[in-house]
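Ticket #4471: structure output looks truncated?

Reporter: J.K.
Steps to reproduce: submitted the chain below (478 residues) through the standard prediction queue, then opened the result file.
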Amino acid sequence: MKTINPLFSILLLIFFISCNNSDNTNPEYTVYQGATLFDGTGKKIDSSIIIINKGRIEAVGDENTAIPDNAEIIDITGKYITPGLIDAHVHLSATGLFDTRPGQAKEKYLDSLNYYLSAKAWTKNNVEKYYEAYLRSGVTGVYDTGGAPWTISLQETAENDLNAPHVAASGTLITPASEEFVNSINPPVEKEMIRLTSDSLGRKVVQYNTYLGSTGIKIWGLALEDEEFMSRMEAVADEVEKLGNKLIIHTHVLDDAKAALQLGAKLLVHGVSHKVVDEEFINLFKKNNALYTPNIGWKKASIYSMEALIGEAGDIEDPNQVLDERTRRFIQSPGEYISSLDTTGVQEGIKGLRSEEFKKGHDSIPMLNLKKLWEAGVTIVVGTDAGNPGMLHGISYYDELEKMQEAGIPASDLIVMATRNGAMAMERLNDIGTLEKGKMADLIILEKDPSEDISNIRSITHVMRGGLLRPVNEKFEK
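Returned output as attached by the reporter:
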């Protein structure tokens, strides 16, 4: 057995040149020792040792854990380790700006938008820029819950790419929305939304997405008052069950959320903001073994996105400069993309979101519901809805965690929600989401204790994906 050389310092980690002796030029194992480790299951290990071999975890334990002979030992005493974070609600075929949400923008704030189709094409041709933003934010897994069909193929192409997070994707969404709205969202090819007009169409969408390999079938809203639509949804739910896929439903309304669970939904995104949840809802959730993604950090993002439209957003809170240049340029020079702007509408939108009336209603109810569901033992997942206006890929994750903590969720529980529970949503808990023997070596290193305050996740210095450790303040080499 080797003994750990106490002279190794954290500087050796930062510059990636450390090893435990000059003879060990080709170590089989890499060992990180001394950090406080949170394994994602709720367990904390002081003075931890984590052993990595060929991109996977060989062992995790305390200071008494046996270290193999052929090992490079890196001392990170005083640091903190968690599993890589997972964003369980993203849209990789959207930019986080208004240019890929024209219907939303036109209805609320804009007369018209330029570059919609080029923006949609840009996301497909440059998805690696979002990958880097996620990894350098500490997010090593993302769940694309609805978007262009091409996102499903990312599940395979990203898996062995250490410059990419793990990806799960559900593909084209099914919706009761109007034909006008759906047309405003859809490019002329690679449709992102399908208006549910018949049982047969619903079943075919489920079949096609499933055959493409989708992880889940996403329903964008329900329409309880429309008996024909709800009958068609029963056909959709039946086909999902037949093919062994799972139902994901987007809704804010309590009655809709109950109906979603009655249809067999396994994942609800956005959470209930309509009214305070009741025991019937909680019991339905537990019966389904469903997962709840509250998405309560959107208000700050929405205000920022509107301020960006009128040039008042200020600097992006992006200390490690993980955002791509296109996103940064849009925020700094929105006129480059926007041909005509209703400034009055934007100002009214900002004022409304900041009002006390909004805070007492739409802002407070989701937080009350989150805490109530947590207290009831519902499994909760962290997701940002990144891709929608203001929800920028990667960096929006911190705001979501902090808002969840503000709702009354302890930081130690948030670590589990952000790691293990996210892997459950992605259906990947067998190999990611926790730091345990045999799982992939995906983790982050922090300067501050995330269990004391979840905002300490912002103190990230390094991210590891598949055993490859890199500093987050440096751009990836191509």
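Triage note (M.O.): checked the attachment and the full token line is present. The radius of gyration is 23 Å.
Status: closed, working as intended.
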